[in-house]
Amino acid sequence: MEAKVYSLDGAQNGRTVELNADVFDVQVSQGCIYYAVNNELARRRVGTACTKTRAEVNYSNTKPFKQKGTGNARRGDKKSPIFVGGGTIFGPKPRDYSYSIPRRMKRMAMKSLLSQHVQGGSMYVVEDFTVESGKTRDMAKILRGFSKDGERTVLIMAGDDEMIRRSAKNIPNLRVLAYDKLSAKELLYGRKVMMLETAAKNLNEFYGE
C-alpha cells in the first residue's frame, strides 16, 4: 500500500512512500491494545506508597486502661489499629507493579494502533526534517499544518533527534517517539500521528513479518 508524503507546510509534495500492509493494514486487535496500554501504565507506577503497622508506629507502649475491673475488653497498647494514631491493618507497602506481556502481543498492539490511524485518516507521512534552531516556535509552525491547536499529536522520528525533542519539549500536546520505542498509550490517545518518511520505511522492517 502507498501513502502520500506531505511537505512541512501541510501540502502534498507529489511523492508517495510504500507502507508494509503487514504493519499498517492489519485487522485491529482491541484486546492486544488494552493489554499493552495497561502494561505501560503498570510499569510507570512508582509504587512508593507505605503505611506503618502497629509494630512500626512511634507511639506509647502503655495499656490504655488496666486489664481487669473496668468492664471493657482487654487492650494491649495504644498502637492498636482501632485507636487514633495506631498502626494500619493491611496497608500498602512499597512494591513493583511492573509485569511482562508476550512480545507478539505487544507487537500486535503497535501494528493495530498504526493501522487504526491509517484507516481513520489521522496519520500523515511527512518529509524528513529537523529543527536546527531547537526553538519551540519553529516546531509549532510545522504542527499548524497538520493538527489544530490543543489537539494531541504524536510525532514518530526515524531516530533520536535531540533538536526535535528540544523544540517539542514545551508543547504540551505533542509527544515525540522514536520508531523503535513506540508507546501504546500515546498512540491510542493521540488524535493525529505525524511520521517522518524515513521512520515509515524503518517501521516497515521493524514490525514486518
Description:
The protein is an alpha/beta fold and 209 residues long. It folds into two domains: 152 residues, Ribosomal Protein L4, Chain: A (3-Layer(aba) Sandwich); 41 residues, no CATH class. The protein is built from seven helices and six strands. The chain has a six-stranded mixed sheet. Strand 1 and strand 2 form a beta hairpin. The longest helix is centred in the middle third of the chain and has 17 residues. The mean pLDDT is 92.
Tally of individual helices: 7
Overall number of domains = 2
Q: Roughly what is the average pLDDT, rounded to an integer?
A: 92
Low-confidence stretches: none
Number of strands: 6
Q: Name the CATH class of the largest domain.
A: Alpha Beta
Structural class: alpha/beta
Shape: elongated
**Rg, alpha carbons:** 27 Å
- Fraction of helical residues: 25-40%
β-sheet strand percentage: 5-15%
Order of helices and strands: EEHHHEHEHEHEH
Biggest sheet descriptor: 6 strands, mixed
Task: Write the CATH architecture name of the largest domain.
Answer: 3-Layer(aba) Sandwich
Within the CATH hierarchy, at the fold level, what is the topology of the largest domain? Ribosomal Protein L4, Chain: A
Going by CATH, the homologous superfamily of the largest domain would be Ribosomal protein L4/L1
Main sheet: strand order: 2-1-3-6-4-5
Q: Report how far the terminal alpha carbons are from each other.
A: 16 Å
